[in-house]
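Q: Structure for this?
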Amino acid sequence: MKKWQIKEDENIADILVEVYGKDMKEFFSNLLQAFSNIIVDLKKITLNQKKRINIKAKNFSELVFNFIEKLIFLKDVNGLIFKKGKFEFKKNDYYILKATLKGEKIKNILPIKIDIKAVALHKFEVKKNKFYKARIVFDI
Amino acid sequence: MKIYQFNLLPVEEGLWQLEKDYQQETVYIVAKKDLLEKMDEEVFIQAKNVAQLPGLAGPVFIMPDAHSGYGAPIGTVFAMDEKEGYVAPGAVGYDINCGMRLIKTSLLFEEVKPYLEKLINLLFDYVPPGLGKKGFLKINKEELKRLGEEGVFYLIKNKGIGWEEDINNIEEKGKIEGADFSAISKTAIERGISQLATLGSGNHYLEIQKVEKIFDEKKAKELGIFSKNQIMIMLHCGSRGLGHQVCSDYLRLFENSLEKFKIKIADRQLACAPISSSLAKQYLSAMAFAANFAFVNRQAITYQIRKAFEKVFGKKAKDLDMDLIYDVAHNIAKFENHQVPFSLRKGRFLIHRKGATRSFPNQPVILGGSMESGSYLLLGTDVALKKSYGSTAHGSGRTMSRAKAKKIVQGEKLWRQLKERGIYIKSASFSGLAEEAGIAYKNITDVVKSIEEVGLSKPIAYLKPIGNIKG
């Protein structure tokens, strides 16, 4: 199964990407890599920086959205970009994601291919059938 | 005329009406036929969705440089009644007050040519894209509050960044009223502090241009443009991560409130709320804050541009006549007095302009083209007030996806070709350069002909790039 795929002709000004995963852990790992690979060359990212994150959401779709927003924040404010993550999930009244992300400072792996500035609600869709699949438009 | 599954009825030369197979307001499209045919299908679908928003005061206008966006097409203008209408953050856009700024110089092309590479390299150092390298201006939370609430005036008066006379040449004098720091999130604050005085990436740029053609000599002289080959500097950027975060934060709040306000919309990105609601008021305060941050950002970058010219040419920026010609937003919502086009109704409306520029009589309008085709300085008109809520186009408008452009164009080859043509580019990456190739955009001259034909703006000068910085 593909990890992710950029849908070339479905969005003119920005980037529409489909992300897949057989389970939640694989899905989030692929999402993390798709995000980082749009911005820099994924192969260049070493694992010398570590960041623990906690994300809470009302449903799975919102959890995915909030996770992307967190990645944007960590990139813009902390200058961090990630390649790998260890993901744990809990579900009570909320969906909870606890993750340890590994990557490095973005200034060490220039050039930037393109910057992701926001995740759009437009066309945003997360589905679970046999596997997890999300359609995400990144504003760049 | 039929495009995709849509019927377009001619209203006058260059103005079309989208045939109504839906309730609510009419959609008018300003475009010559060939530009109309270049618009992607989503433009028409999204325009119809916009025309079905609640609270519209009159028709929706689509500009000739339109292409599909999120919810509303880029190149959309509409009016909401001040009291009964709604505000839609998605129809302002993520990059609140993304806009254009034009600075003049007294230098001529022949004087700049020998120093062009040095100048562009220095500007690339002075005005970083923002990711991987931060801007020169370090501020704390309190300063951000004052910059966002007081706008460019605070930057000039308290930080000494810019000239007092600059303020007169900025839309709303660089300060949209009603900005409130408490309306923006902690995340927006932190993204703003870390990205001030940076250019951003994507289609944002800083360009050195020469005057190629003057159409209106009298008005050009009034604005300080005296001759062909005079050097200009054009800047295209916005409110950086702060504006994006404001839009993201409020879109989700608005989406969650749709049920409460009993609103049905065709696209989540068009989530809206009554202007009279506290949620809408909060958004407008946050939007004004982000808009002011964008004005401040362009002002801070102007300071760096002047510094770079001073260093390269060994003269004070004042002696190089580096005055601001104008700074104008093209992603914003503002309360303005208008007469509804094709109607006798007059009133105060919240005008949403997404990828569209204010075009009031005698006001400079800046249309940025691709790094290959050049740009235009134009003048707003009375006709625009009557026909399009005082609005016009904002640039070229994409016709090709970024991925497709990268397949067709090799960034490094394009860089060499442009250099041979006398356009020196400094870009963060060759792939980013390929995405912004001229082939991915409509011809700016066709856009100008369209708006001129309908009377929305009149060209003053055509400006050709000689150097460009891309984030």
